[in-house]
TrEMBL record:
Any GO CC annotation of this UniProt entry: periplasmic space
UniProt entry keywords in alphabetical sequence: Cell inner membrane, Cell membrane, Membrane, Signal, Transport
Residues covered by the Solute-binding protein family 3/N-terminal domain: 38-254
Protein family: Belongs to the bacterial solute-binding protein SsuA/TauA family.
Gene name for this UniProt entry: TauA
UniProt signal peptide: 1-23
Protein name, per record: ABC-type nitrate/sulfonate/bicarbonate transport system, periplasmic components
Length: 348
C-alpha cells in the first residue's frame, strides 16, 4: 500500500514538474516574440511604389533586416489613410505621394520625416478624342479631371493652369476641375463628360489605350522637366528615434532595389505586375505596363526642391494655411550614410 502511495506521489510530482517546465517554455516563447522587432510598412499597389512591391515580394527587405525581424505589410489606396495609420502607430514606414506626406507633417506638427525618394514623374495630361486640346491653354472653358482635390495631380494641374493664365472655375476662372477616382476618370473621358485629365500612370496609358485619348503633356513635360517627386519614403519620428538601425537597413535595401530595377527594368516590370495582380486581382496589359514604366523614374532621391515647391503651391491654393515651417520635413542623414558606404553621391 505504501509503495502504491509513493508511486502516485511521484507521478503527481513529475506531472507538476512537466507542467511547470512547459509553462516556463511558453513564457519564454512569449517573451521572445514580444522582444522580436517588428517593422510595419505601408504602401500602395502602385507602379510608383516599385521598390516596395519588388523588395517585399522577393525577400530583399527581409534579408536586409535579418531573420529576427518581422515585417508587417499594410496596403492602402489613399494617402490620407496611410498618414492616419502612421500617426496612430499602425505603421512605421510608408511609401506615399509627396503632398500627403507634406500635409501629414504640417497637421501633426512634425511627427514624420521624409527619409528617401521612391519615384519621379509618371504623371500625364491626357485629352479625350475629338476635344482638339493640344496645349494647356486649350483647357480654357473645359472640364478637367484629377484623382482628388488637394492631391499631387490637383496641385500640379493648378500650377499648369496658372502658368497658362487660367484658373479653376470655382475661383472665378474658366476651367472646371472635376475630382474622381482614377477608374471613374476613364469612364468620364470615354463618355465625353470631361475633356481632359491629369492622372498618374498606369491610368494615363490605360485612358489612351481604352478611350482613344491623346497625350497633351508627357511625364517629362508636366513640371520641372520630369524632376518632380511622385512618391517618397516616410518614417514616424518615434520609429526613427527608437530604431535608426532598422531604418538604415531598410534604406540599404531600398537603394539596392532602386539600382537593380533600373539595371533590369524588364524583370522588375514582371514582378511589379504580378504583385499588382496579387493585391488588386487584376494585372496590367503588357503595352500599358511598358508605356507606364517608361514614364516613371525609379529613384531614391526625394527631389527636395520639388517638395518645397509643392508646399508653396499648397499654400497658394489654400490647402495649407499660413506659412508652415518645413525645416524638419527631411531626414536624409541615414540615406546619405548608405549612399556613402556604397560609393554613391550623397544628397543635399
Amino acid at each position: 500500500m505504501k509503495i502504491k502511495i509513493a508511486f502516485k506521489v511521484a507521478a503527481v510530482v513529475l506531472l507538476a514538474a512537466a507542467f511547470l517546465a512547459a509553462a516556463a517554455g511558453c513564457g519564454n516563447k512569449k517573451e521572445e516574440d514580444k522582444a522580436r522587432p517588428v517593422v510595419k510598412v505601408g504602401y500602395f499597389p502602385n507602379m510608383t511604389h516599385a521598390q516596395a512591391l519588388v523588395g517585399l515580394s522577393d525577400g530583399t527587405f527581409q534579408k536586409a533586416l535579418g531573420d529576427n525581424v518581422t515585417i508587417e505589410e499594410h496596403t492602402f489606396n489613399a494617402g490620407p489613410a496611410e498618414i492616419e495609420a502612421l500617426l496612430a502607430g499602425q505603421i512605421d514606414l510608408g511609401y506615399i505621394g509627396p503632398v500627403p506626406a507634406i500635409n501629414g507633417f504640417v497637421t501633426s506638427k512634425g511627427e514624420l520625416k521624409i527619409v528617401a525618394g521612391a519615384a519621379d514623374a509618371g504623371v500625364v495630361l491626357v485629352a479625350r478624342k475629338g476635344s482638339n486640346i493640344k496645349s494647356v491653354s486649350d483647357l480654357n472653358g473645359k472640364k478637367v479631371a484629377v484623382p482628388q482635390i488637394g492631391n499631387t495631380q490637383d496641385i500640379s494641374l493648378r500650377h499648369l493652369l496658372s502658368e497658362a493664365g487660367l484658373k479653376d472655375a470655382a475661383k472665378g476662372g474658366t476651367v472646371t476641375i472635376v475630382p474622381a477616382d482614377n477608374p471613374d476618370i476613364l469612364t468620364l473621358i470615354s463618355r465625353g463628360e470631361v475633356d481632359a485629365a491629369l492622372v498618374p500612370e498606369p491610368w494615363g496609358s490605360r485612358i489612351v489605350k481604352q478611350a482613344g485619348a491623346s497625350i497633351v503633356l508627357d511625364a517629362g513635360e508636366v513640371w520641372r522637366g520630369g524632376k518632380y517627386t511622385t512618391a517618397v519614403v516616410i518614417a514616424s519620428n518615434k520609429f526613427l528615434k527608437e530604431h535608426p538601425d532598422l531604418v538604415q537597413k531598410w534604406l540599404e535595401a531600398h537603394v539596392d532595389l532602386t539600382e537593380r530595377i533600373n539595371r533590369d527594368k524588364n524583370s522588375a516590370k514582371t514582378v511589379v505586375n504580378s504583385q499588382i495582380e496579387k493585391l488588386t486581382k487584376k494585372s496590367l496589359p503588357e503595352d500599358v505596363l511598358n508605356s507606364s514604366f517608361e514614364r516613371i523614374v525609379v529613384t531614391y532621391n526625394p527631389e527636395t526642391e520639388s517638395v518645397r515647391e509643392f508646399v508653396k503651391l499648397s499654400v497658394e491654393n489654400g490647402y495649407i494655411k499660413g506659412n508652415p515651417d518645413i525645416a524638419g520635413l527631411f531626414s536624409l542623414d541615414l540615406l546619405n550614410k548608405v549612399l556613402e558606404q556604397k560609393g554613391l553621391q550623397p544628397l543635399q
